[in-house]
Amino acid sequence: MPRLLLIFLLVVLSTSANAATATANANFAQAPVDSAKCSAATAVISGYASNGSTAVFMSSYETSGWSGQIVSTLLTDSTKPNADWGQPPHHSTADKLDALASIDQRQMLTHDGTHGVPFRWESLSKSQQTQLQSHGVAKSYGADLMQFLRGDRSLESASAANGLRVRHSRQGDIVHSRMWHVGKSASAYVDKSYRDFATQQAARTAMLYVGGNDGMLHGFNAKTGDELLGYVPQGAHLNLHLLATRDYGHHYYVDGSPFIGDALIDGQWKTLLIGTLGAGGPGFFVLDVTTPSSFAESNATQLVVMDRTDGSDPDIGHLFAAPTLDEANAQRALQITQLNNGRWAVVLGNGYGSANGQPVLLIQYLDGARELLKISATASTSGGASSISNGLSAPQFLDINSDGIPDVVYAGDLQGHLWKFDIAAASDQRWKVALNGTPLFTAARDGKPQPITIAPVVRVHPDIGGLMIAFGTGQELSEADNADSSVQTVYSVMDYTRYVIQDSGADKGKVAVDATRKDLPVAALSRDELTSQSGATSAVSGTSGRSFWSLQGTSFAYCTRTPCDTGEKKGWYLDLPVERERVRDPLGFYGGGNVLEIISRVPATSSGPCEQTFRTLLDIATGAPQKSRVLDTNGDGLVNAEDAPASRSTAASRELRLSSSNGRQTRQGSDGKTDRLDALPMRVKRPSWRHLK
User: Fold this and answer.
1) Are 655 and 9 in contact (CB under 8 A)?
2) Distance between CA 365 and CA 341 in Å, rounded?
């Protein structure tokens, strides 16, 4: 049997300002209870991750007391617990936290509005102390609440007049936050200084980071399961008191997914963590996690690099999006990058529910003065915004000249606009929204905008050049979204732009648009210029515990010169066939080729059926299904001529993805079922400027 290699899983202060933030948070109140009611188990699996070789990590939560945990099992036998974490029933991160003899053993940090400080009563700013104290009558309430949040359980009582909520565990629920494992440095930069850094960090403590709805990001020792770090973001402080109320229902705090990357900061390589709050609040934070052995409250100023909220900038909203990963290295986030002006930054969509309510690309510099550069896709409106309004989703990056630095950024927004940002110049003063400030494409059906909440993916067209930009639509930001029956769509549209390398001037060696190509068409303005692949779907027989369908593709010719000939198109689209089906998971490329792997979902509702998940495989250039067999429909563990020609199937809600040396993939699902997908032939052009000329 070929050795299995693991791929990372991709399976949310003035009184008036506080009130506005609380209202916005309520509007983003996703309901995990809808998923929990569909689970036969007490605990609901919320995600998987791995260390890349020997161990698998599984996060879960339970709704009766809103506690959570992570357990580790062996990759060779997922039924066996990782002995390094202990034996059941004392083998989870929650077990480890609950076994602490003293809460003073915990290294917990926060930000006081100026810099990082220990998460202790005496270290908070005066306004933070006032905020905690204001929710109780007793003089000691604020300090007692702080002790409760740090894990003190002595004041928990269901009967005492001043008793605080009785928790099932010190560890809160993990719902939408995805775990990130980091061991030795994984960015693979080629310069000597980075190689030296990677050598120095090769033996550092492997860590597992995840956001929790107990008010903090957790950092666990991936070898033992012990907590080494807790961080309470500024944006979570507003509602921390709710965790102690005896009638606690559920609230989100640090529900976004952290991601990690290496960056050269003022001449020194560092490993940085970017965290978001998702539905828990607007904002993001940056921690220096280079050396886990330095995690201590006494080092708070050095460990907490920055913490930004909507109070510091009205364009910062709730950041829900999953990290944008390097396709060739899933343990590297593309959003932490060096830019064409030589500086290092984290690049983010501004999220939703910001005060300005507009889509904005955020470029947060990590070096120097740590400025926040903003590129607005539309002008801010003076009339204010609705509770969610518009906002920019996760970015995708294109390195045209293969120098390791992104030149173009693509990102969508809630109004269905697909934006293109030009960041190729040597000066950030010349970075801008491309195409004269207009969207590359607008997703709409029957005149209604289709929201884009995931990062698009990019491929060079293998036959005619140009770039295919693919994305799905649909949102699930609030409970009200779950019942929305608007048809959502997968799109793949052509960006016809060609590029040249400048040979002189301030931007010598940088990429620029080839303005001489007047013969090329402009991108499609609407779906009317695309081919519909929304043809008939036919059920096919299957015996592996899944349902399978074959899709009927429609062939078409691309427009390659202007004016277009009759019948020529500029891409394709697929309307999702099931009512309320939408795409909220990042698209991927199956097997590294040109075949899109689309994970779509029909959300559960409080009164309706459980969540349904589907997998669809289509070529990014043509929208057609594969002619060869790619799915194990008969459940015999093989993909061959005895399987049906299916290109769509049901799937597990959460998956652990395994790839063998021959390119075949195994997906171990949270429902206990195993899916097998065959290897696909590679037919890829490298996305460099030479192929885009």
Assistant:
1) yes
2) 11
Closest CA to 441 of 417, 409, 468, 415: 417
Instruction: Give yes or no for residue 657 having a pLDDT over 90.
Output: no
Residue pointed to by tokens 């903003």: 374
Written as one string, the DSSP assignment of 462-493 is TTT-SEEEEEE----SSGGGGG-----EEEEE
CA distances in angstroms from 413 to 381, 474, 597, listed in the order given: 16, 11, 21
259-284 confidence digits (pLDDT tens)? 999 999 999 999 999 999 999 999 99
Token pair recorded at residue 135: 């929710």
The pLDDT of residue 186: 84
| Portion of the chain with pLDDT greater than 90, in percent | 70
pLDDT of 569 > 70? The answer is: yes
- CA distances to 67, 175, 605, 618 from 34, rounded to whole Å, are 16, 12, 6, 30
Residues 6 or more apart whose CB falls under 8 angstroms from that of 50 comprise: 6, 8, 9, 56, 57, 75, 181, 656
C-alpha pair distances (Å), 64 with each of 39, 60, 158, 213: 13, 13, 15, 14
Separation between Cα atoms, residue 581 and residue 600, nearest integer Å: 6
Residue type, 427: S
Distance CA 520, CA 498 (A): 9
CB-based contacts of 639-643 (< 8 A; 24+ apart in sequence): 639/664, 639/676, 639/677, 639/678
Three-state DSSP state, 429: helix
Q: Which is it for strands 108-111 and 116-118: parallel, antiparallel or unpaired?
A: antiparallel
Q: What tokens were used for 690?
A: 């030479």
Task: Confirm if 318 and 24 have CB atoms less than 8 A apart.
Answer: yes
pLDDT score recorded for residue 35: 54
The SS3 assignment for 292 reads helix
pTM for the model: 0.92
Tens digits of residue pLDDT in 114-173: 999 999 999 999 999 999 999 888 889 999 999 999 999 999 999 888 899 999 999 999
Residue 37 pLDDT class (50, 70, 90 cuts): low
- Strand 441-442 to strand 227-232: parallel, antiparallel, or no bridges (unpaired)? unpaired
Q: Is the pLDDT of residue 380 over 50?
A: no
* 215 Rama class: left (phi>0) / alpha (psi -120 to 50) / beta: left
Total residue count of the chain as it appears in this document = 693
Of 315, 321, 317, nearest to 375 (Cα)?
315
Calculate the alpha carbon distances from 75 to 53, 267, 500, 628, 671 in Å.
7, 39, 47, 30, 17
Do 653 and 670 form a contact (C-beta atoms < 8 A)? yes
**What DSSP element (H or E) covers 96?**
helix 93-98
Q: In what order do the strands lie in the sheet with 67-74?
A: 44-50, 55-62, 67-74, 77-81
Buried b (16+ CB within 10 A) or exposed e, 202-217: eebbbbbbbbbbbbbb
Asked if the peptide bond before residue 89 counts as cis, ω within 30 degrees of 0, the response is yes
Nearest to 57 by CA among 675, 654, 676, 586: 654
Among candidate residues 317, 339, 187, 358, the one with its CA nearest the CA of residue 259: 187
3-state DSSP helix/strand/coil % of the chain, to nearest 5: 15, 30, 55
CA distance 314 to 676: 46
